[in-house]
Design a protein that fits this description.
The complex is a heterodimer of chains A (255) and B (268). Chain A has 255 residues and is α/β, with parallel strands linked by helices. Chain A has 8 helices and 10 strands. Chain B is an all-alpha fold. In chain B, 33% of the residues are buried. Chain B has helices at residues 2-19, 21-40, 51-60, 62-96, 98-113, 120-127, 131-155, 159-168, 172-209, 215-224, 228-256. Helix content of chain B is 82%, strand content 0%. The chains are: A alpha/beta (255), B mainly alpha (268).
């Protein structure tokens, strides 16, 4: 089977000359359709940089990226991206923010009213559709941001630490929602995180990223049944994956 | 429904009054002190008059004050509106054009350093005592804060929103109207409000320098006639004018960007 996303020799250097910062790579990697791959690493390791390069929002300094067989040379519009800071605009309600994605694509939101209602329902925000972002809790804002990022039905999702700023309990809930969604629809997901547990719970494979310049040294296939609920998380296998991953980061001197 | 709405307004007003009683007391105290200190320190009436006399004499001269408020108001509003109409598109153009940012922008920053009021005598000598030189001076006072804030506003779209826009494949015009313009409004209003505060200053000073009507003219003439009571009445009307303009801009802000943190009220 052909990989959906293919990275070959991808490298990113910011600036030039003596002030140049080698942020990422070089990395070779292939991601198949329907996979859930986490990019796991400490802050500043370049995992967000990699995500932006896949999205075509940042140009690699070297190497090439292909998405569904086509080389990525500019912004990719048929994917869904959730940015590290959410892109909810304060002048629109939750519904208006979801519709913004459609309007930006020249789609009449009235023609997709049912789809908007459905996606808001799927994340339990149907009662908050007419609220403004500042009236929502952090967790609700991230759910709304998810709807905004995915309303156009992308088959590939790039999620940049979507749960990073949430409290542990809210994270837990949204994680399990995300997992059910992935199990139902089977999109290809690239999930940027710095939480070892989160990566292992959600992913089919975890790409461990080294400290800067970030490279992918180890990719750990997670061979655990879905859904990975509390029972799975308490199993010796799960704990084993966590311990092994911690060992790797200890080796890097990160923890 | 209607009665509960009225109740809400009354309750809010009451809460406001309770919150601000210290301020109100201080305000009243200030005027009482003013009133009495003139008697207490035996200040001559041609130097300073008590508030009660200002109200009395100002009331007697109300017709002239109202007409002059209209004259100064017209100069202020014309200058301000023209400044908004010209400064906003120019700010936009500078924000989006590299060439303008390298040529016109540093030029505007340099001109901004010049006190615009200093041009007032020149404009009056060029253009006479009429409406036009005052409008131009108000315009100059208002133009720069609006243009500079507009440049800042249109240049400070967050990285994430700009990436979001690009990821949707939307064109420049759609991105402008759906994202850049609304995102820039709060910072634009900083400029609008600053200009509104300074607009009446420009009009008054222009009238000081050369005019035969308006509140600035009035204040200068009555001061020359040793009538501080009427000068204070003129200052009062000038203040009202400034407040009215600022109030209109604030109202526009509430209507146009009710979502912004400086304006919004949290729903209960």
């Amino acid at each position: 089977m052909n990989p959906l996303i293919e990275l070959s020799g991808v490298k990113k250097v910011f600036g030039s000359g003596a002030a140049a910062v080698h942020a990422f790579g070089p990395v070779d990697q292939a991601i198949a359709e329907g996979e859930f791959v986490s990019l796991l690493g400490p802050s500043g390791c370049g995992k967000s940089t990699l995500m932006l390069m896949i999205a075509g929002l940042l140009e690699p300094s070297e190497g090439r990226i292909t998405l569904a067989g086509r080389e990525v040379t500019g912004p990719q519009t048929d994917i869904g991206i959730m940015f590290q800071d959410n892109t909810l605009v304060p002048w629109r309600t939750v519904r208006g923010n979801v519709e913004l994605q459609l309007e930006m694509r020249g789609i009449q939101p009235a023609s997709r009213k049912e789809a908007v209602d459905a996606i808001l329902r799927s994340v339990h925000l149907e009662d908050f559709a007419e609220r403004f972002p500042y009236e929502l809790s952090g967790g609700m804002q991230q759910r709304a941001a998810f709807c905004q990022a995915m309303i156009h039905g992308p088959q590939t999702m790039l999620l940049d630490e979507p749960l990073g700023k949430l409290d542990a309990m809210t994270r837990e809930r949204i994680r399990s929602d995300l997992q059910s969604l992935w199990m139902q629809e089977r999109p290809t997901v690239i999930f940027v995180t710095h939480s070892i547990e989160e990566a292992i719970q959600l992913s089919t494979r975890v790409a461990v990223i080294t400290p800067r310049p970030g490279t992918i040294d180890t990719v750990i296939p997670i061979d655990l049944p879905f859904p990975r609920d509390f029972d799975v998380k308490n199993s010796p296998e799960f704990v084993g994956y966590v311990r092994d991953t911690q060992e790797i980061f200890r080796g890097y001197g990160v923890i | 429904m209607a009665s509960s709405e009225t109740m809400g307004v009354l309750a809010r007003l009451q809460a406001r009054l309770i919150q601000s009683w210290m301020f109100i007391a201080f305000f009243i105290g200030f005027f009482l002190f003013w009133e009495w200190s003139i008697v207490l320190f035996d200040i001559p009436r041609f130097i300073l008059t008590p508030p009660s006399v200002i109200v009395e004499k100002g009331w007697a001269d109300l017709d002239r004050l109202i007409y002059y408020t209209y004259v100064t108001g017209l100069e202020t509003v014309l200058g301000y509106v023209i400044a908004v109409i010209l400064a906003l598109p120019l700010g936009l153009a500078i924000a989006f054009s590299t060439i303008l940012r390298r040529t016109l922008y540093p030029f505007i920053v340099c001109i901004e350093m010049v006190p615009k009021i200093a041009f007032a005598p020149l404009f009056i000598s060029w253009l006479g005592f009429g409406l036009l030189p005052k409008v131009i001076i108000v315009f100059l006072v208002c133009f720069f804060p609006i243009v500079l804030n507009a440049i800042l506003a249109f240049n400070s779209l967050s990285e994430e929103l700009s990436r979001f826009s690009r990821s949707t494949g939307a064109g420049a015009i759609r991105t402008f109207f759906k994202i850049r313009l609304p995102a820039a409004m709060p910072q634009c209003f900083v400029g609008f409000k600053y200009a509104a505060i300074n607009a009446t200053v420009g009009a008054a000073i222009a009238e000081f320098i050369g005019s035969d009507e308006g509140l600035g003219f009035y204040i200068q003439i009555v001061t020359g006639n040793m009538r501080p009571d009427l000068a204070f009445a003129g200052i009062f009307f000038l203040t009202l004018l400034g407040l009215a303009l600022f109030g209109c801009v604030t109202l526009a802000e509430r209507l146009l960007i009710p979502w912004h943190i400086s304006v919004r009220r949290t729903r209960s």
